[in-house]
Amino acid sequence: MVKATAGIHHITAFVRSAQNTTDFYSGIMGLRLVKKTINFDAPEVYHLYFGDEVGSPGTAITFFPWPESRRGIVGNGQVGITTYAIPEGSMDFWEERLKKFNVSFTERTRFSEKSLHFADKDGLQIELVERKGPKSTWSFGGVPADKAIMGFGGAVLYSTTPKDTEMVLESVLGLEKIGVEGGYARYKGFGEIGNIIDLNIGSVPAGKAGSGTVHHIAWRAKDDSEHAEWRTKVSASGLHPTPVVDRQYFNALYFREPGGILFEIATDPPGFTRDEPLEQLGVKLMLPPWYEDHRELIEKNLEQFEVRVLKEDQE
């Protein structure tokens, strides 16, 4: 039996402003800030996680807000588009909501699915597509739970060498190729959310890392035992995974696939309620034990921001 990932665990991107990002992903998109912590490799920068009520695997988009960062260019060697799944029948609601907040969007169709395509305040490319699946239980601002984003629908990958990336998606990650249409190959994982990956098999100009671009895409491992098996498999495939890294809310390993996109494999457990109760997720700056002695200095250097209902939803 071919080893397979359920699909996306999380997606991480660069932005500039914690407040602008929170206003967009909580205020407009209705996602919950489920964890406010720091980049463990660069503690002068936040690491913010937005997802469903508990930040379930397959729902969490995470950001490194870096105020002085250069503007990136979306292109080859990156995740090009982050796809969110919304409940069937909710497209009209989201069209009106984007208009309400003056977010410009276009309608697109890929594999016979209509989507709304737009960008966040840093230029990160996003689309909304109606899908079946488990509905969110979280509501915020003007987004009721029955219209809320359910999690990732998937992602569109821009590879420098699509044939090589195809090999990794199929032979390493175990995704099933289910179609080719309009310059894209579509792959599917077995999970209920974050399970559809489209690979651009044509030519896309080169990307450049910076705000408004995705840093990496993470794939799901069900537990630490399976995570170890994934590391062995990735290594046996001729790729070069890092050692396992403790990210507090999951364990991670990283490798760059031949098409230039940074892949991560992350464990589903222990999750975001590991160090604070469900009701308080995202309220306090959470630090790993090895940074607690430096809390005062770390907090002093970080941008202050809040999760708030935007004025358009108060009128």
Describe, in plain words, how this protein is organized in 3D.
This protein has 315 residues and is α+β, with helices and mostly antiparallel strands. It has one domain: 2,3-Dihydroxybiphenyl 1,2-Dioxygenase, domain 1. 17% of the residues lie in helices and 34% in strands. It has helices at 18-28, 91-100, 162-172, 224-236, 295-301; strands at 8-15, 32-39, 42-51, 60-65, 78-87, 106-110, 113-119, 125-131, 151-158, 176-181, 184-188, 196-200, 214-221, 245-246, 251-256, 262-267. The chain has an eight-stranded mixed beta sheet. A hairpin with an 8-residue loop joins strand 3 and strand 4. The longest helix has 13 residues, at 224-236. The radius of gyration is 18 Å and the shape is globular. The relative contact order is 0.22.
- The figure for the number of domains is 1
Would you tell me the overall average pLDDT?
A: 97
Q: How many runs of DSSP E, i.e. beta strands?
A: 16
What structural class do the secondary elements suggest? alpha+beta
